[in-house]
Amino acid sequence: MTRDATHLTGKVSTRDIVETATAYVPKMKEEGADIIIALSHSGIAVDQTTGAENASLQLAAIEGIDVVLTGHQHLVFPGPDYEGVEGADITAGTLAGKPAVMAGFWGSHMGLIDLLLEQDADGKWTIASHTSEARPISQRRGQSQCPGRKRSRSGRRRLS
């Protein structure tokens, strides 16, 4: 917990997103979940340490997580902001091979993931295929980023 730590230390406790998901996903599977969709207020970056703020790529790599809806960086995924990021496929719309989307900022995009599900003979559901896109809601003229925010603040454009 880094943001507002002076106000929250001793009052709030947090756990690392990847460690927490690693602990809970097997329990969810044991309780009957076939498809697990992670809603993650976290960004996309490589080589993260424990407690990292932008850990959606590492979250997607957890066995048992099938889809990731992410945010935090207020960028668009799939999209060119993540071109060249290892594990992020901007053409397929996947993180670590799992369907994923980040819908920009302030309603700029609608994140859409369309899953084709198949049910096997035992009644278990699996993802047969998917499409993933961040669809623009409207065109913003002259603004390529969140209005009123500077690109360099908090490393928002920094992806590694």
Description:
The protein is of the alpha/beta class. It has one domain (5-137): 4-Layer Sandwich (Purple Acid Phosphatase, chain A, domain 2). It has helices at residues 5-8, 17-30, 56-60, and strands at residues 37-40, 67-70, 76-77, 88-89, 94-95, 98-103, 109-119, 125-136. The strands form 2 sheets. Strands 1, 2, 3, 4, 5 and 6 form a 6-stranded mixed β-sheet that branches. It has a two-stranded antiparallel ribbon with strand order 7-8. Strand 4 and strand 5 (94-95) form a beta hairpin. The model is unreliable at 147-160 (pLDDT under 50).
Question: How do the strands and helices of this protein lay out in sequence?
Answer:
Blueprint: H1 5-8, H2 17-30, E1 37-40, H3 56-60, E2 67-70, E3 76-77, E4 88-89, E5 94-95, E6 98-103, E7 109-119, E8 125-136
Parallel strand pairs: 1-2, 2-6
Antiparallel strand pairs: 3-6, 4-5, 5-6, 7-8
